[in-house]
Amino acid sequence: MEIRQIQYFLEAAKREHITEAADFLHVAQSSVSRQIFNLETELGVELFIREGRSVKLTPLGKVFFERMKQVWSLMEDAKREVEESLDPEKGTVRIAFPISMAAHTLPSIIYSFRNRYPEAKFHMSNALYHDLIDGVINGEFNLAMIAPMPNREKETKIKGATLFTENIVALLPLHHPLSKQKEIQLKDLKDDFFCVLPEGFVFRDQVVTACLDAGFSPQIAFEGKDIDALKGLVSAGLGVALMPEMTLVDNTPRSTCVIPLSDNNLTRTVGVIYPTHRKLLPTELLFYQFLLETYERLNEFKK
To answer: Cis link prior to 198 (omega < 30° from 0)?
Structure first.
């Protein structure tokens, strides 16, 4: 197998189209077709079901695709490791994060890191909780900010560190009867309509579990696709929502108010994870250490 064959195969598989793969690679589509044909001949199997220029992976093609993605990622990592070893301060950090960290947490820490290492670059992706874990394990990225921190006993393929613990707060419409309170208990909202994230979001599960622990099942009236959508629903007076405190830093919508919850267990851990079976590349290791140092100082300051 040649590197070019693997590259052409991967691009065709991702796009499910020979012409689009060729356009991306800046080569003739006949070249892509020929390299894939040569690869299939060498392997002795068909990797694609062909319909004109459109292609779909065969069952064996899907197995080969998953393996080759990992191989390609390792090759790219090896190349980057050599380059970054010469100068880690100018390398690239591949990091993923939940959308709840997009507005404040991650931009703030990247800004601080770039102040120290101005030539460092970032390749960022956002994903759902379990996709963050899977992405770190399978090599889509080497680092992920995550909340809450996974159970290390169950997730043996990842390591990481808890950076800080944040409070969960209530976001209420300004006209809500409890909007003037300095703090409330979660059970005070048992008669309210709740705005929550869709099924599949870990934070939605945390909200529902917290309500059940407080003695009631939340009346879910609206689902928002992300944290900003929930803010909009509450701002329109359509219900209340529980929010991670950091999502409201410098970004509390008009017509709403943030009320602390006195329930002691309403917190979530925020941390960073990386794979156990791969080394962090030099620039990523630099950023990881920077995260630990920064939040250790912040946590000490809060004490």
So the answer is: no
